[in-house]
Amino acid sequence: MGIKTIVEDNIDILVVGAGLGGTGAAYEARYWGRNKKIIIAEKANINRSGAVAQGLYAINCYMGTRFGENNPEDHVRYARMDLMGMVREDLLFDMARHVDSAVHKFEEWGLPLMKDPKREDIGAYMREGRWQIMIHGESYKPIVAEAATKQADKVYNRIMVTHLLMDDKKKNRVAGAVGFNVRTGNYHVFKSKTTIVGAGGASNIFKPRSVGEGMGRVWYAPWSSGSAYGLLIEAGAKMTQMENRIVLARFKDGYGPVGAYFLHLKTYTQNGYGDEYESKWFPELSKMVGKEYLDTEGQHLSHKPIPTCLRNHAFISEVNAGRGPIHMVTMEAFKDPHLEEVGWENFLGMTVGQAVLWAATDVDPKYENPELTTSEPYVMGSHATGCGAWCSGPEDISPDEYFWGYNRMTTVDGLFGAGDTVGGTPHAFSSGSFTEGRLAAKAACKYIDDGKAEGIVVSNKQIAERKEQIYKPLENYTIGRNEIVAGTVSPSYILPLSGLQRLQKIMDEYCGGVTVSYVTNDKLLSIGLKKLAILEEDLEHIGAEDFHQLMRGWELRHRHRTSECVTQHTLFRKETRWPGYYYRGDAMKLDDKNWHVLTVSHRNRITGEYTLEKAPCYHLVGEGDEKVEV
Amino acid sequence: MPTFVYMTRCDGCGHCVDICPSDIMHIDDKYRRAYNIEPNMCWECYSCVKACPHQAIDVRGYADFAPLGHSVRVIRDEEKGTIAWRVKFRDGRVKNFLSPITTQPWGTKIPDLRNEPEPSDDMRNSQLLAFEPKYIRMDDGDIHTLESNGLKFKEGVYY
Fold first, then answer.
1. Cα separations (Å) of B123 from A35, A102, B133?
2. Which domains does chain B possess?
């Protein structure tokens, strides 16, 4: 079929996936690696790719140390509290101490950051909440894309990277990546000394609430295909906190964001009958999770934010008790024309689909309080949750168990991560992901300069085998298609969409999705794993009609591998750590005695078997922090 | 259906095909014009709508839950550095919004780092990133460390 093999050799730094993490990596790599060969491989077009493709109306991670607002440790304590203690505080502290320097650069590059009129004299930014600043970010992605493109030797757009290449000489060392051009079909081989994966987390692995056209209106981008995890798990990298999926309370159906509404517009929620409902679920919930995590009396008085999952729990419980729907009370705030404008521009700037929906249904929040819903679960590592690879921290901070030489390097030599890829670092968001990319790139340059990438060998056999594997779905289709008259039903192949829907059904029903009210248990998870194993056999028989479908087929493989890892982790952690994200029906309590630890998994590349272990959870303490005996 | 393309306005230039993050805007072989090949993988992100030089692309909300009769139109003007939105409700009401998209002329404010002075070995071996510590606080203050902030790491449960 005229497929060419295009080899890009002698790369020093290969960036796979140029969202906010990848663009940060390419930018920083040039600063420290003046003569290094920097190549970007991007599935879409770098100018509008990744989770920020349609823009953002806020930067959710900005310390403001310049204006005396927060120190890095304040942010660490916040993220720790929100994730019920389960975070990598070394990585968080490191990201937080650098993140402001990225944001100040964004402003210099032209990103319009709103200024606080009350603090005009010092030029302080408009705060949405303690950590968020408001921006006019429609062109956020084109701006950071320019920063990356200027530094890279070449940007390859429309390359779906399917596998990482491994060194055939030294065990457990990365050697680049392979993939194909989703337009021309050409086979691309990238031989590289280091690889920084900035690929996306996973949307669409749990059955979405909307299943027709609306399955595209997922909260996280539909093109976030779990490649961050699929690529890494296949390469044998250890993963952490993969059970920590996130469920979002958002405007119904459009999944429009609520951050600016809660924080800036001061809107609030009530049940279908106009009553406040959250607080009445808290006493019982406090018994489930313990007073350290939800202090019903103290927390309200101290205004310490309540963890997002626990607020979800109240939402879900109230709906299940028959008092839905939950409404966002907007009618008061929207009387102020300025706040009304902010409310609308918030959607137009980052979730246009919600504005489309309100226009279609004649919902004007000035006259009507819109409905909220809780989404299907998502697996990702840069928003308010921390799934991802088990990575080394920086040498001046990290405890021994968290440090093996190079910042943001996974447990595979030369393989680095940024953004969704890195585990244990929630609340990085866009600016934090960009910062993580920068940290990874500096470390990757040092790795090369230290001579760690010498003598990498990639056999022609490895390259040829991957090629055969990648294009197999095209062959499956060509052969199988001749067996049938017409249509999509074949006894020998399944289309990528059918495979995706089977995956979503398994994950939904066995791993705690929407239709089971986010509840699972050991029995369900074990059945889920069996079904995922059979699905994996069938994925050998994916049929792809063209290169676009071939891309969907490989996205599905990455989503499947992600799902398997999520299910393994969920089975391992025998407690309910995050009520409101998911529940282990057979262990409905938070269990600090046994589970105040991070979960780490490793999949054997040859046998496919998983080993799971507990890793210690270290916390930052200053004077006055007391240890809680459990 | 998420995005769709008006037959009479599209000239098949392919700007939408070039930009779509989901790879779903393709050129139809027969009509030589663009169309959305996979509406259920469309995020309504408007990247193609903004990129179309003829305003040939529009969005009709997802059929599962959005009634007909609405429109959300946009003009993104790189020269002026603005984006203009018009939201038309099913009942005919209209709202208009205008926002800046950049404060700088495109392509001028981001340097090629190859031209910056080389960092010293000290900087390479430090925890500093490019243009730090200056850009963290925009003054002479240094980077935060555990020591500078009076912190240490301890294993266990601390709140």
1. 17, 18, 10
2. 1-66 (3.30.70.20), 70-106 (no CATH), 111-152 (no CATH)
Enclosing domain of residue A551: 460-590
**Residue ranges for chain A with pLDDT beneath 50:** none
Q: Which of A50, A110, A361 sits opposite B104 (nearest CB)?
A: A110
**Would you call A121 exposed, middle or buried from its count of C-beta atoms within 10 A (0-12, 13-18, 19+)?**
exposed
Condensed to tens digits (0 to 9), the pLDDT of residues B117-147 reads: 999 999 999 999 999 999 999 998 999 999 9
DSSP labels, A533-587:
HHHHHHHTTB--SSHHHHHHHHHHHHHHHHHHHHHHHHHHS-S-SSTTT-EETT-
Place of tokens 């590349």: A605
Which CATH number goes with the domain that contains A280?
A: 3.90.700.10
- Structural domain count of chain A: 2
CA distances from A610 to A228, A239, A506, A597, A603 (A): 18, 11, 19, 18, 4
> Do the Cβ atoms of A223 and B65 come within 8 Å?
no
CA distance A457 to B6: 52
A196 is written with which tokens?
Answer: 């920084």
Q: How far is B8 from chain A (nearest CA, A)?
A: 24
Cα distances from B126 to residues A92, A113, A216, in angstroms, run 18, 30, 44
* Amino acid present at A205: I
From B43, B89, B106, B135, active-site residue:
B43
Residue-level pLDDT at A295: 81
Give the largest Cα separation in chain A, rounded: 75
Tokens 């999944």, located at residue: A255
pLDDT at A622: 80
CA-closest candidate to residue A520, choices A561, A569, A571, A568? A571
ipTM above 0.95, yes or no: yes
Q: Distance of CA A366 to CAs A288, A332, A333, A338, Å?
A: 38, 7, 8, 12
CB contact under 8 A, A223 and B151: no
Give the model's pLDDT for residue A624: 57
Q: Give CB contacts under 8 A, 24+ apart, made by A281-284.
A: A281/A313, A281/A314, A281/A317, A281/A318, A282/A310, A282/A314
Helix (H) / strand (E) containing A239 = strand A239-240
Of A165, A157, A112, A172, the C-alpha closest to A137 is: A112
In whole angstroms, what is the distance from residue A309 CA to residue A334 CA? Answer: 27
Measured distance CA(A239)–CA(A598) in Å, rounded: 10
- The reply to whether B85 belongs to the active site is no
- Residue holding tokens 């990201």? A95
Q: Which residues pair with A417 in a beta bridge?
A: A197
A250 contacts chain B (CB < 8 A):
no
Q: Do A32 and B116 touch (CB under 8 A)?
A: no
CA distances (Å), origin A304, targets A77, A298, A300: 11, 9, 7
Residues B110 and B104 sit within 8 Å (Cβ to Cβ): no
pTM: 0.97
Same domain, A476 and A358: no
Judged by a CB distance cut-off of 8 A, whether residue B117 touches chain A is: no
- CATH code of the domain in which A557 resides: 1.20.58.100
Decide if A365 contacts A327 (C-beta within 8 A): no
Closest residue in A to B109 (Cα–Cα): A109
Q: Do B151 and A211 touch (CB under 8 A)?
A: no
Contact map slice: A 81-110 vs B, CB within 8 A: 81, 85, 89-90, 93-94, 97-98, 100-101, 104-105, 107-110
